[in-house]
Design goal:
single chain; 175 residues; alpha/beta; Double Stranded RNA Binding Domain; 6 strands; LPS_assembly_LptE; LPS assembly lipoprotein LptE; signal; lipoprotein
Length: 175
């Protein structure tokens, strides 16, 4: 191995061992001076839906931020503050199936479950990424094959997973 190859290896090793301290493999771009996050309970202000949506969403979003950042969760006054509410839970027809008999009514073959969450994000150290906006996601299901009451928990969890990812990307990933 010649001295040029050795120098190149040493330079590469030095470059790889240093970092700016603001990037992670999750895409989070958090300043090194940001250490804490506060996420109070997201209240359920939706007129419909399961009664435990508030607890479910709050725990899922807290877990996601803790698992995907180096931030420490505090009760209040964190360097990053995220709060909000589940604001709506709707069921709406997406596709209608024609009735098989002449005197029958047309039925909905696909139904869309949509959940809306309003979130406010404040970065105490840098207010350029602060926001207050509504996030939503939906799942379409066939009522003839999937009963809402027996699948509702799974549907809500899948919708919350996507909304939490969207909130994460809008806040600390700056997408």
């Amino acid at each position: 191995m010649n001295w040029k190859s050795s120098l190149l290896i040493i330079l590469l090793a030095c470059c790889m061992s240093t970092s700016c301290g603001v990037y992670s493999f999750t895409g989070a771009s958090i300043s090194a001076d940001v250490k804490t996050i506060s996420i109070p309970t997201f209240y359920n202000n939706a007129p419909l839906g399961p009664s435990n949506m508030s607890i479910t969403f709050t725990e899922q979003i807290r877990d996601y931020f803790i698992q995907n950042t180096n931030l420490r969760l505090v009760d209040s006054d964190g360097d990053l503050q995220l709060e909000g509410a589940v604001t709506n839970y709707t069921l709406s027809p997406v596709a209608v199936t024609a009735a098989q008999e002449e005197n029958s009514i047309d039925l909905t073959s696909l139904t869309r479950l949509t959940i809306y969450v309003n979130a406010s994000y404040v970065n105490i150290k840098d207010d350029t990424y602060d926001f207050d906006k509504t996030f939503s996601f939906f799942i379409d299901f066939d009522q003839d094959r999937e009963n809402l009451s027996s699948n509702e928990e799974q549907f809500v969890e899948e919708i919350f997973d996507q909304i939490i990812l969207d909130i994460f990307n809008s806040s600390v990933a700056n997408w």
